[in-house]
Amino acid sequence: MRPYFTRERYGRPQFLAGLLLLCFLSQALWLIFAETHAGRELESSEAIRIGEGWKQWHGRGIAAAPFSDPAITANDPFRPDDSGFDTEHSPLLYIASAAPLLVWPRDFSSDSAAYWGWLPRIPFLVCGVFLGASLWYVARRLCGNTGGFIALTFYCFSPSLIQASAVWHTEPEIVAAWGAFGAIFTAIAVAHTLYAPREVVLWNWRRIGLLGIALAIAVASQFSLLILLPMVLGFLLYVAPVRKQAGIVIWIAACGVGFALLFAVYFFHPHAFAESLGRAAFWGATWRGFTIFGVYKQVAVRIGRACPAIALALPVAVITYIACPRTRYFGNTAPLLVAVLLLLLGIAHPHVAGAGFLLAAIPFLFVFVSGVLADLLETRYRSLVMACIVGMMAAYVVWSVVNLAQVPQG
Asked: Residue 3 above 60 pLDDT?
C-alpha cells in the first residue's frame, strides 16, 4: 500500500499554501477580534440566527420554519407571504451558528458577547479555509503550481471573502460559495473518472458522496442555488460524452445523497421539511435588473471590492482569452462560463440571493484569471509577465493588510 504522507502530497508547495491560508485565517480572526473587543451587542441578523439555531438544537422546533417571532419577517418586502418561513435559506446556517455554543457553559447575555461572540463564527471560518484549500487544489491541478499560488494569493487577501468568512457586518454567504465551487469541480472530477475501465457507481462512490455533500451545502445555504443541479449534469455529460448513461446515474445518485442531507438539516421532521420547501424561493429571478445601468455598476464595484487586483487582471485575462487560441481550453473556459452565469444570476436576483451568487462567482474568476496568467508565463514574454504579476500581487497584499489594520475596534 502506498504511504499517504509522502513528499509528493506534502512538500514545499503544500507548506507554502498552508502559510497563505494561515494568513487568511489570521486576517479573519482580526476582524472578529476588532468587532467583539468593545463588547458590542450582537447584530440583529446574527442574534436571530443564533436564537433560531439554539431553538432547533434544543428540540423546540425547526429553525426559521417558521421563525419563533413572526415580527422578524413582517416588514420584509421580498417575502411572498407572512407565514414566518425563511424562503431563502434552510436551517443550515442557523444550526451552524448555534452549534459551537453548545459547549459554552455560561450565560449568553448581550453583556458577555465579547467572551463568546466569536464562537458562532467558527463554522464559517472553517468554510472559508476549506474554500481556499479547494481553490488552490483545483487551480494547481489545472494550471500548475504557479497558477495555484496566483489564485490562492487572490483569495487569501480578498476583502470580501475575509469579511464573509468572519461574518463581519455581512451574511455568511461563504457557505454557499464553498458549496457551489465544490459541486462544479467535483462533477468535473467525477466525469473524468468515467474513462477508467471500472464499475462506474461502485468505483466512484466516494466522489458521488462528495458531490452530494457539496450540492446539499450549496442548496441548504441558499435555495436558489438549485440551479447547480442542471449545471452539474451538463458538465457530467460534456466531459464524458461516451458515458452519458453512467453520468446520468451518477447525477441521480448525487442528487439523492444531497436530498437526504438536506432532509437531515431539518432533523428529519417531514412536516417542517415539506412546508419549508413549499415556500422556498428556488428561482425568484427578475429580468428587471438587466435594464438598470446601476445594477451593472454595482456588480463591477462588488468584483473590485472582492479583489482589487482582479479588477486589473480580469480585463487582461479576457482580452488574452479572446485573442490567444492557446488559452481557450476547457480548464480556462469552464470556470469562466460558470462565473459569467453566476454573475448574471446575481444581476437577476435583487434581494438576498444576489449577494450569494456574486460572492460564489469570485473563486471561479480567480481560477480563470490564474489559468490565463499561467499560460502567459509560458510565452516568450515570461520575464515581463512575471514582473507585472509580482508587482501587482505585492501591491495587492500590502493594500489589503494596510486597510485591514485600519479597521476600527468595536
From this structure: no
